[in-house]
Amino acid sequence: MESRESELKGLGADFVFGFVQSVDGERDPRNLLLAFHIARKIVHEGYDLGKFTEELFEVTSCYFPIDFSPPANDPHGITQEELVLALRVVLTGTPRFAEFLLPLIIEKLDSDVQSAKLDSLQTLTACASVYEHKDLAQFLPGLWASLRREVFQTASERVESAGLAAVGTLTACLSRSVLNSDSEDSLNVFLELVLKDCQHHLCEPDLKLVWPSAKLLQATSTASYRASHRVAAAVLPSLIEQYNSRTQVSHTIQLGRSIIINVGVRLTFLTVGHDLINSDNDVISLPTGTGAFSLEEVISVCHSLQKIAEQAQDTEETGGVFHDVIPRLLGLALQAALQGENIPTNSLLAGQTASRAVSLFLDGDVSFLPENTIPAQIQLLKVRFQCDSRSQSQMVCLLMGCVCWLPRTVEVPQMDRLLLELLELSCTCDHPLSYTSAAKCYAGLVNKSPAGETLKRISTELDSASSPVRTQAFTLLLWVSKALLLRYHPLSTTLTDKLFSLLSDPELGWLAADGFSLLMSDSPDVLNRGSHADVRIMYRQRFFTENSAKLVEGFNAAVQEKKSGYLKALSHIVNNLPRQVQLTELPALLPLLLEALSCPDQGVQVSTLSCLQPVLLDPPSALITQLEVCLTSSSQKVRIASLRCIHALSRFPEHEVRLWPALVLRALAAPLDDHKRVVRSEAAVARNEWFLLGSPGGR
Amino acid sequence: SSLKQQNCERLQTAKDEDEDVADPIDDREIFDLIRSINDPEHPLSLEELNVVEQVRVRVDDQENTVGVEFTPTIPHCSMATLIGLSIKVKLLRSLPERFKIDVHITPGMHTSEDAVNKQLADKERVAAALENSQLLEVVNQCLISNARTS
């Protein structure tokens, strides 16, 4: 065949026919080996099979599966293995055999003989790697039934893994298909079969089919991008639901993690995961796009990563996954940023990554980022005014994620230099996200670092607020105030006093008022207990006690238009106090708050009402006394508002207010005769409600 | 009740806003107090059933008197006393103590109007009635306010 190829081929189908006849009935292994080699050549090297395809197949396949035990002292040394492999090459050599081979495989898989099973599975794996979907399409149900059986009921690990391998290559083969508009999607058909039989088992943790099902699903999802999408989309919702609802979650985590770790296109999974986590019920939209990920995908990946991080067990394995994925994300993010797009993100990192991040941001060291085309020596913190590089300066929010979340025991390298750079960036950059993130990052670091030279610099910098960067300076002031307030650093008073004084500032007044919300509430991305910030206990309470008088004074002294700022600030502070403190402090502030209710500014009304709300949830009797005082106010609006509050109080659970009716009814007698009709009407309504309280037939 | 009430919601005038101007108590104000009292038997208000009407309300702020005439739905209405009591109680709870409250059946509208009127006028009888918890229960149920539009 080697030397006379063309002549032999010239014989056409006759050659094949002759060959078939001569092989028929052969039993000598040496001859068979030779025959298989020839057959392989016939099949692989384009000999004309004519109408003898089936005959050629039959004459070779009748030896399948090979069951050969060489005699003792066999001088020729032919092994079963050799024969098996030689035959396999023939059988799987051409898709034209598919229609014969596949039924044969299915048949032989039924055999009780383990070696036959194994051979069949391995042959299947081999042919699937050369076949196309159309060759397999009609046999999918049968193949799946057998494969499933082999994995579900296996007694042998070898058979199981061979079965899984077969499933994988099968899936991969089907995934290679190019779909026409009228062709059926075989991959879909196959995955439907798989999911139908495997999916529900995942939710039954005590039955023994969980792991076989999981392995099968894993085998399919690792085979190709398309398959992984399909499988993850189908399986994840229930896994997540399971995780959320069960106390015994270890196996669910393992399942989930095995899918995470083993899926070839890891980030695709996570993107799907994000859609699922965010989806209502069954509305799932799979992202399109292969190769480079779009920004939305990266963002959603980050979000879902965060959620997974929050829920995953803190083990070495999980940590390993994240340590691997995060730098990839950093790299992706940087690359996307260089293409000029926005990425807000959030991540958890350990000290090692932090120092990498620092060297990246300070020195442009990109060596640790895998597979990147980022120019070395990139200057991420220096960018200031060039508008088209603002995307780079935004990256400082990633830096914040890296360095501000370290435990205080981990030292941040090059701290002083870092602080200097951040200070500069926050005071001079013109891009809001960038300078805010720089301020936050600076604050996060300052909160943990020991007091020293650095802190003195802040006050000098801030006092020189010149007009073009006032907003930036204010942002920095706010964040640093928070950082220092949390740890009750002496310098914090100077800074917060500055904030108070800004309440009447024509330009920054409203910002300052809202800033108090930021000062008092928990910030998710920096300066919180989770990021190991230095937070002293009861700092909010202390702040309130030391400053509420100041605020009331400011309010009383301010002109009408400015009063709302003080109220806003006050309500922000009060809203964040612990409940007990609110209950004791609020009644004294009641006149102020009630007056605030009548302020036309909706923002003030809202913040005042939300100030009052905690008190109303669990009212102390001091409240009634205070409200009574308000009933004598000269402003009818105040009287009306107090009456409404008293009315509202009647809605409380009976046990909380059962001692009050007499008190209230007496208090409400006078307002019934108020000289203003509206007040009388409110009083009547409230009083009637209180009569009904605890009275038969009443509420 | 809402339809009638919505159409007749009292309009605020500039005087109402003025702190220093005193608003006298007028007939409308009294009527507003009693119009949405529930009928004990029907899921309708006294206004909707025309049991009370603004024309049959008289108040004299200076003299501290209030007079309400109510018209039972049918001449033999057995609920007449109860309805009258509900009106009286509502006014007692809603008006300053200085007022003398007179509630009686519109003349010629009920077979036992004298007897009912006498009961309603008797302070001690009224007080005793309200100490009867079953009676009080029914009265309260008539007085439970429907959603007030404000």
From TrEMBL, chain A:
Keyword set includes DNA repair: yes
Compartment annotation: Cytoplasm, Cytoskeleton, Spindle; Nucleus
Domain MMS19 C-terminal: 298-649
Keyword Nucleus attributed: yes
Upper taxonomic lineage: Eukaryota, Metazoa, Chordata, Craniata, Vertebrata
Keyword set, alphabetical order: Cytoplasm, Cytoskeleton, DNA damage, DNA repair, Nucleus, Repeat
Any one biological process term the GO annotation gives: DNA repair
Subunit structure: Component of the CIA complex.
Main location: cytoplasm
Family: Belongs to the MET18/MMS19 family.
SUPFAM superfamilies reported in the protein's UniProt record: ARM repeat
Domain of life of the source: Eukaryota
Transmembrane residue ranges: none
Domain MMS19 N-terminal: 2-153
Name of the protein: MMS19 nucleotide excision repair protein
Physiological role: Key component of the cytosolic iron-sulfur protein assembly (CIA) complex, a multiprotein complex that mediates the incorporation of iron-sulfur cluster into apoproteins specifically involved in DNA metabolism and genomic integrity. In the CIA complex, MMS19 acts as an adapter between early-acting CIA components and a subset of cellular target iron-sulfur proteins.
Gene Ontology CC: cytosolic [4Fe-4S] assembly targeting complex; MMXD complex; nucleus
Name of the coding gene: MMS19
TrEMBL record, chain B:
Region (Disordered): 1-23
Keywords: Chromosome partition
Pfam families cross-referenced by the UniProt entry: FeS_assembly_P
Composition skew (Polar residues), residue ranges: 1-10
Residue intervals of the MIP18 family-like domain: 28-103
Highest taxon of the lineage: Eukaryota
GO cellular component: cytosolic [4Fe-4S] assembly targeting complex
BP GO annotations: chromosome segregation; protein maturation
Physiological role: Component of the cytosolic iron-sulfur protein assembly (CIA) complex, a multiprotein complex that mediates the incorporation of iron-sulfur cluster into extramitochondrial Fe/S proteins. As a CIA complex component and in collaboration with CIAO1 and MMS19, binds to and facilitates the assembly of most cytosolic-nuclear Fe/S proteins. As part of the mitotic spindle-associated MMXD complex it plays a role in chromosome segregation, probably by facilitating iron-sulfur cluster assembly into ERCC2/XPD.
Similarity field: Belongs to the MIP18 family.
Subunit annotation: Component of the CIA complex. Component of the MMXD complex, which includes CIAO1, ERCC2, CIAO2B, MMS19 and SLC25A5. Interacts with CIAO1, ERCC2 and MMS19; the interactions are direct. Interacts with KIF4A; the interaction facilitates the transfer of Fe-S clusters to KIF4A to ensure proper localization of KIF4A to the mitotic machinery. Interacts with CCDC117; the interaction is direct.
Protein name as annotated: Cytosolic iron-sulfur assembly component 2B
Source taxonomy: Eukaryota, Metazoa, Chordata, Craniata, Vertebrata
Gene name per UniProt: CIAO2B
